[in-house]
Design goal:
- This protein has 3 domains: about 130 residues, Orthogonal Bundle (Butyryl-Coa Dehydrogenase, subunit A, domain 1); about 100 residues, Beta Barrel (Butyryl-CoA Dehydrogenase, subunit A, domain 2), CATH 2.40.110.10; about 170 residues, Butyryl-CoA Dehydrogenase, subunit A, domain 3.
- The chain is α+β, with helices and mostly antiparallel strands.
- α2 packs antiparallel against α4 and α5 runs antiparallel to α10.
- It has 13 helices and 9 strands.
- The strands form 2 sheets. Strands 1, 2, 3, 4, 5, 6 and 7 form a 7-stranded mixed sheet that branches. A two-stranded antiparallel ribbon has the order 8-9.
């Protein structure tokens, strides 16, 4: 049995509110139908998002929901039962799901990136094997690739590679069927990516993810203990030599736009939830000299919601433009991408991310001014949106994104590829 065949481990189904929901229903076939399916998932998630956040349990049922809905294989080849959709639609799906639960939007977005990792760096044969594997089995990806930690150590043992080390963050954790590993071959500066089954003795999760927000992303630490991979599964290597392309470096812009879209989804969820609370529960202010009967007649509330919604629509527009741009090159022949084109896309994504963070943080804080003091009750749960956005937006400093955009504007320079650009 080959290592690729060995990756075909199965996971037991988990219970959840999605059980049987789409049984007998045809899989969505158009972009509009996939977005409608994502809205169904989002509507399920938003109902008890606060309760699930507080329980902070491993999100088995939530992942079952993603799998049952078909969203996990949205980018997978149609020939293997996947949706065959573009990255432009995947980004919008991430945003819609995050509107219901930011954590689950992140899990799905990271999955899309890691499922595409084979296309980014692997050989044609490896790409075909990985895409068939995960699509046919409806597998979810996670990744132990936090570049702020020391790289995993990779040693050569005959025709096998042995990965070892520690990562502080590993989004997907125990709910991932497949995990992407990255390390440096001992005695060299050669980075090696490989995809391995998550359920094995050599992958030990710390169970220590207990942060302010994005609590259901299974992003805690992981120990990699002597995980063996055949040399033939080292992504992109032919005869133990890597075949580099500019296309290989799209992983960072692609996932930075994943971030942007689940930030926008979180903000949308915050605005919708606050608006519903204002309509149903906020009282007009009786001491202003321009007394209104209903809160929805208050001029400052109408103006305030108008300002926040206008910013969100503008942010979504630049994110959609960036999504269309990077989707185009992600689906074009890999050899066609130039460093300049890659850099221009990275700058546009940096600008989109900046707006999503700054306007999102303003929205998730300011909604309290438009809902009133009683909305600060824990039972209302408006804090989940700020906590989720604040937590993940610390992933890498926004100041460096501002600098990248500024260098492009003033100096016509595009950023050099790095782990964060």
């Amino acid at each position: 049995m080959t290592h690729t065949e060995q990756l075909g481990v199965s996971t037991a189904p988990t219970d959840g509110s999605s059980a049987g929901r789409w049984t007998g229903s045809p899989q969505p076939s158009s972009a509009e139908e996939w977005l409608a399916r994502a809205r169904e998932v989002s509507d399920i998630l938003i109902v008890d998002a606060v309760d699930r956040d507080r329980a902070n349990l491993t999100p088995h049922a939530e992942v079952r929901l993603l799998k049952d809905s078909g969203l996990v294989t949205l980018l997978g080849p149609v020939a293997h039962g996947g949706g065959g959709q573009s990255w432009e639609i995947a980004y919008q799906v991430i945003r819609v799901v995050a509107r219901g639960d930011g954590s689950i939007g992140q899990l799905l977005g990271y999955h899309y990136l890691w499922a595409w990792a084979a296309r980014l760096v692997a050989t044609d044969e490896q790409i075909a094997a990985v895409e068939e594997l995960y699509t046919r089995n409806n597998f979810l990806f996670g990744g132990a690739v936090n570049p702020r930690d020391s790289d995993l150590s990779v040693r050569e043992d005959g025709e096998e590679l042995v990965f070892s080390g520690h990562k502080s963050f590993s989004t997907g954790g125990e709910v991932a069927d497949l995990t992407v590993l990255e390390g440096v071959l001992e005695g060299t500066e050669t980075h090696i990516f490989a995809i391995v089954p998550t359920s094995q003795p050599g992958i030990v999760f710390g169970g220590d993810w207990d942060n302010l927000g994005q609590r259901l992303t299974e992003s805690g630490s992981v120990e990699i203990r002597q995980v063996r991979v055949p040399w033939s599964d080292a992504a992109g290597f032919v005869g133990k030599v890597f075949q580099p392309l500019v296309y290989n470096t799209l992983n960072v812009p692609a996932i930075q736009l994943v971030f942007t879209n689940f930030y926008l989804g979180i903000t949308q969820g915050a605005l919708e939830t606050a608006a519903e609370y204002t309509r149903s529960s906020t009282r007009a202010w009786p001491y202003g000299g321009d007394n209104k009967e209903r809160a929805t007649d208050e001029w400052y509330l109408l103006e305030g919601y108008g300002q926040l919604q206008s910013k969100l629509w503008a942010d979504e527009a630049i994110a959609d433009r960036a999504g269309a741009e990077i989707s185009r090159v992600l689906h074009e022949p890999r050899e066609d991408l130039t460093p300049r084109r890659r850099g221009e896309i990275a700058v546009l994504i940096a600008a989109a991310k900046l707006r999503a963070i700054e306007d999102g943080l303003e929205t998730t804080s300011k909604i309290y001014e438009f809902t009133g003091a009683r909305a600060s009750a824990n039972a209302v749960g408006l804090d989940i949106f700020w906590r989720n956005l604040r937590t993940h937006s610390l992933h890498d400093p926004a100041a460096y994104k501002k600098r990248e955009v500024g260098q492009y504007v003033l100096l016509n320079e595009v950023p050099e590829p790095s782990w964060y650009t």
